[in-house]
Amino acid sequence: MRETRVHVEVLLDQGAIAEAERYMKERWWLLRLAGYRLRKLNQAYFAFNGTYGDSPASISPIGGQVDELRSLVSDVGDMLRLTRGISSYDEFLRVLEETREISEGLKVKN
How far apart are CA 40 and CA 85, in angstroms? Predict the structure, then answer.
């Protein structure tokens, strides 16, 4: 699935929408032949099944980054306080980096 997702993203970035659709249809047939019963394979499938950030098929790093941020804070409440005002990915990356620095600073002191 990850290979399919990456290839489709490349095609879409190039504006090759029809080719991306054909490729997804080919991959759908291969998956069906392998025993996977997908109704349809398209962009909506990837979005609905979470393959943008939190699965092995994802091409986005954010799932792992959210997990990392959670590992750097003491509890879920701290995580919520850190993230509640974030409105963009760039802001999230800034908060993650700041939290890493604070965490590293605490490790050095101990």
Answer: 37
Query: How far is residue 66 CA from its own chain's centroid?
Result: 10
Identity of residue 2: R
Position 109 scores a pLDDT of 63
Rounded to the nearest angstrom, the gap between the alpha carbon of residue 45 and the centroid of all alpha carbons in its chain is 14
By the 8 A CB rule, do 38 and 46 touch?
Answer: no
Region at 50 (left for phi over 0; alpha for psi -120 to 50; beta for the rest) = left
Q: Is residue 80 one of the residues assigned to a domain?
A: yes
| pTM, full prediction | 0.49
**How many angstroms separate the CA atoms of 106 and 102, rounded?**
6
Is 55 contained in some domain?
no
Placement of tokens 């003491």 in the chain: 74
Residue 28, domain extent: 2-48
Q: How many CA atoms lie within 13 A of 14 on its CB side?
A: 10
